[in-house]
Automatic annotation (TrEMBL):
PANTHER family per record: GLYCOSYL TRANSFERASE-RELATED (PTHR10587), POLYSACCHARIDE DEACETYLASE YHEN-RELATED (PTHR10587:SF125)
InterPro entries: Glyco_hydro/deAcase_b/a-brl, NODB_dom, Polysacc_deacetylase_ArnD
Cited Gene3D superfamilies: Glycoside hydrolase/deacetylase (3.20.20.370)
Pfam name, any one: Polysacc_deac_1
MF term (GO), any: hydrolase activity, acting on carbon-nitrogen (but not peptide) bonds
Domain of life: Bacteria
Protein name: Polysaccharide deacetylase
Domain NodB homology: 38-224
PROSITE patterns: NODB (PS51677)
GO biological process, one term: carbohydrate metabolic process
SUPFAM superfamilies: Glycoside hydrolase/deacetylase
Length: 237
């Protein structure tokens, strides 16, 4: 490993610690719901894409589960039909920035990456998202303030399996990572795509959900959306 790689890794680790859940983010994050109610929420980032998001929507539909999708604005423009389908089927659509750029949120001024994605989503579903998840999970204090001023709630997580990896981690392994961490109020972060990819095949996330849902129900958990879990509005004017 050369010096440059070592330095980049060190910056990444420092950024994750300071700016991401569970400890970072300067108090703006909602990382879980009430620990007193046996409810959990599935969240899916970095889509939409085809056929991966469609496969996941099929799976959720068969299981009767509603989830929250944090969508990348550019991908929403590529696949408005998928976003419309998710919305029509009762899932919640949140904002995951326009281009999934980590840099945009680090800049001291700006906000187009937030506004443009909201515009793209509003064009499709006719509602303005009020939930935001920062790309890479990195949230600076000034980005937090920009989001607050615009009326967004910032949604983190307390469970984050390795389903973002390429090639895909097998579902059995994802399930084994998730199960021991599930608690009342948990927010599970998974991925229905890879950001800024028009077409993406992804099967293990859907397989993991298919395995987790009956287990969660046996354990007495309700599966709800983020607005239901946190008592927050999904959309605003
Ligand atoms: Zn992401």
């Amino acid at each position: 490993m050369n010096v440059r790689t070592t330095l980049t890794n060190a910056i990444d680790q420092m950024g994750n610690l300071l700016l991401s859940p569970p400890y970072g983010g300067f108090g703006y994050y909602h990382n879980y719901g009430p620990r007193t109610r046996r409810a959990v929420a599935f969240t899916f980032d970095d889509g939409p894409s085809k056929p991966s998001t469609e496969l996941l929507l099929d799976t959720l539909g068969e299981l009767g589960v509603k989830a929250t999708f944090f969508c990348v604005g550019l991908s929403v423009q590529w696949h408005p039909d998928v976003v419309q389908r998710a919305f029509t089927e009762g899932h919640v659509i949140g904002n995951h920035s326009m281009m999934h750029s980590r840099k945009a949120g680090l800049m001291l001024s700006g906000g187009d990456h937030i506004d443009a994605a909201t515009h793209a989503i509003t064009q499709v579903i006719g509602r303005r998202p009020r939930l935001y998840r920062p790309p890479w999970g990195w949230l600076t204090p000034w980005e937090g303030r920009r989001l607050q001023q615009r009326g967004y709630a910032v949604i983190g997580w307390d469970i984050y399996p390795d389903d973002w990896k390429v090639p895909e981690v097998p579902a059995e392994q994802l399930v084994a990572q998730i199960k021991p961490l599930v608690k009342p109020g948990s927010i599970i972060l998974m991925h229905d795509s890879v950001s800024n990819q028009i077409r993406w095949n992804k099967t293990e996330t859907a397989r993991a959900v298919r395995s987790l849902v009956p287990w969660l129900r046996d354990e007495g958990y309700e599966i709800v959306t983020i607005p239901e879990l946190l008592g927050l509005p999904a959309y605003g004017e």
